[in-house]
Write a structure and sequence with these properties.
With 255 residues, this protein is an alpha+beta fold. It is 30% helix and 18% strand. It has helices at 4-25, 31-35, 61-69, 82-86, 166-195, 222-227; strands at 49-57, 110-113, 116-124, 128-133, 138-146, 151-159. Helix 3 crosses helix 5. The longest helix has 30 residues, at 166-195.
């Protein structure tokens, strides 16, 4: 006979595709957002798994954008559970301040991401960031929708499970679906919490989104920001960060 815990797990497994799967894969997103076609979808049209998650951020897009472009392994982390990411050797250490040395991002830029390489496929400041890890057949899309006094941030993942038997692909999909909602919900909430804060801009950085200071008081000291830098080889005194502006990083193929 099954034990109580075994029975509970069995019921959970049986109920997952009926009651839980759609909720987890579409956390926070409206039906229209889930059904929408986003720039970058065509990069992996035959994906086995497509997820769309979303969150409302009470800040304009130009305050959300800097947190997105500095994300990454060996950069500003992903604002989720670092200890989980680092179990897989991803070198994630989520920053609490804007890191100017990681703001100048362009289409075609790439950097290591675990055993793969993450490449920037499309970029439009304040609106769109599409990245791909070819080795993993994974495309990630961040899409920002400005509203009156807030921003809707959409996160879409497209994953293709390469090779192996049907059972192997099913196992990979189950792992992805189990980890994704937990990690990505934390990520989106982390981006929201950071974007809605005022005093995150180091006073030694001349660049400001839109040329406007977010706060004129109680700035994070340079020493604190340096301590949170993910790349120890870079120093604040030697950096020459560029200001973010809508005319700086040009729109890619999706203009």
């Amino acid at each position: 006979m099954l034990s109580g815990s075994g029975l509970a797990l069995g019921l959970l497994g049986a109920s997952y595709p009926l009651f839980w799967r759609d909720r987890l894969l579409r956390w926070g997103a409206t039906p229209d957002e889930v059904a929408s076609n986003l720039p970058g979808d065509e990069l992996l049209p035959d994906a086995h798994l497509v997820t769309t998650k979303a969150i409302t951020i009470h800040a304009p897009p130009d305050r959300v954008w800097p947190w997105l472009v500095q994300m990454g392994s060996g950069r500003a982390g992903t604002y989720t559970y670092d200890w989980v990411d680092n179990l897989f050797g991803l070198d994630m250490h989520s920053a609490e301040v804007i890191l100017p040395q990681f703001q100048d991002l362009h289409v075609g830029d790439s950097y290591p991401f675990g055993s793969g390489t993450l490449r920037v496929e499309a970029l439009e400041p304040g609106r769109l960031l599409v990245t791909r890890v070819p080795e993993w057949r994974w495309v990630r899309i961040f899409y920002l929708i400005p509203e009156r006094d807030f921003t809707r941030l959409l996160l879409r993942n497209r994953v293709f499970y390469r090779g192996g038997t049907s059972a192997t692909q099913l196992g990979r999909q189950m792992i992805s679906e189990a980890a994704g909602p937990l990690m990505e919900r934390k990520m989106l909430r982390g981006i929201k919490q950071r974007s809605e804060r005022e005093d995150v801009w180091p006073d030694w950085w001349s660049g400001e989104p839109g040329g406007v200071r977010l706060s004129s008081q109680s700035r994070v000291p340079a020493s604190a920001a340096l301590g949170l830098s993910m790349t120890k080889a870079l120093t604040c005194s030697g950096s020459s960060p560029a200001a973010l502006s809508s005319g700086r990083n040009s729109v890619s193929r999706y203009a």
